Amino acid sequence: MKNKCAVILCGGRGSRLGSLGKKIPKTLVKVQNREILWYIIKYLKICGFNHIILPLGFKGNQIKYFIKKNNNFNINIEMVQTGINSNIGSRINKISNKIKNENFLLLNGDAIFDIDLNSIYKKHCIKKYSATFLSGEVTYPYGSIGVVNNKVIDFKRNLIFDQLKIRKKNNYVAYNFTGICLIETKILKKYKSIFKNSGNFEQTFYPKVINNYKTKLEKINGFWHSIDNIKDLLVVDKKMKNNSKYKTLKKLKTYINKY
């Protein structure tokens, strides 16, 4: 576990970010004057990840310049051009042979987080899980009606939730997936011929793993916020204030900037 590898998916287009997403890759959008990718790499480094693979796509040269400008963050960062219009399965397939560890972390390049990845990684390895999925809270952006004992008690917007109740499935609970997953490398390579041309990597690969191997769901206690659109940029710092460790994203930035 001394050597840890992470694959950060950062090749897609930020189409929901409007004109901003046309100018730069979504992972280079700034929050508190720092790029999302800066937060991700810095925090992975804190958690002991010393080999990071970036499958590049849309405006990949900007990401290359960003990494070079930051002196590769003094860790081993490999950047692979995987095609501007490639799907996620194709991108992962093209970098899979660069993963040398028995397990690796796969995550999206559009979320800022403060998660105890060390303990989750250690548990994943000791218990020999083939996949560990991380679940976190999200904000429901619409209005909701609160009901207790069939009585309407309130109206609220922007409720924070981590699980869903599914209609006609009383014993089934659906947890929000953060897009962060620890994966046994040999399992990934076993199925890459199936997912490499798939239009939806997660829907093709993850059910195979869940149905055939030992997997685990980890509900995270730390901060996690995915930035998918302009509104997400506006609410990220407000959401951070609910985190008792840092209170604001500015303080988190100050903390990880030491590394």
Looking at the structure, the CATH topology is Spore Coat Polysaccharide Biosynthesis Protein SpsA, Chain A
Distance between the termini: 20 Å
Task: Write down the secondary-structure element order.
Answer: EHEEHEHEHEEHEEEEEEHHEEHH
Pairing-aware structural class of the strands and helices? alpha/beta
| Strand proportion | 25-35%
Low-confidence stretches: none
Q: What global shape is seen? A: globular
The CATH class label is: Alpha Beta
Give the radius of gyration: 19 Å
Strand order of the largest sheet: 5-4-1-6-13-8-14
Q: Using the 3D structure, state the CATH architecture.
A: Alpha-Beta Complex
Number of helices: 9
Query: Can you tell me the number of structural domains?
Result: 1
Structural overview:
- By secondary structure, the chain is of the alpha/beta class.
- It has one domain (4-135, 177-256): Spore Coat Polysaccharide Biosynthesis Protein SpsA, Chain A (Alpha-Beta Complex).
- Helix content is 33%, strand content 32%.
- The protein contains 9 helices and 15 strands.
- It has helices spanning 19-23, 36-46, 60-69, 88-95, 117-126, 185-195, 201-212, 230-240, 249-256, and strands at 4-9, 30-31, 34-35, 49-56, 76-81, 103-108, 111-114, 131-135, 138-148, 151-161, 163-165, 173-175, 177-184, 215-219, 223-226.
- The strands form 5 sheets. The protein has a 7-stranded mixed beta sheet, with helices on both faces. The chain has a two-stranded antiparallel ribbon with strand order 2-3.
- Strand 11 (163-165) and strand 12 (173-175) form a beta hairpin.
- Helix 4 (88-95) packs across helix 6 and helix 6 (185-195) packs across helix 7 (201-212).
- The mean pLDDT is 87.
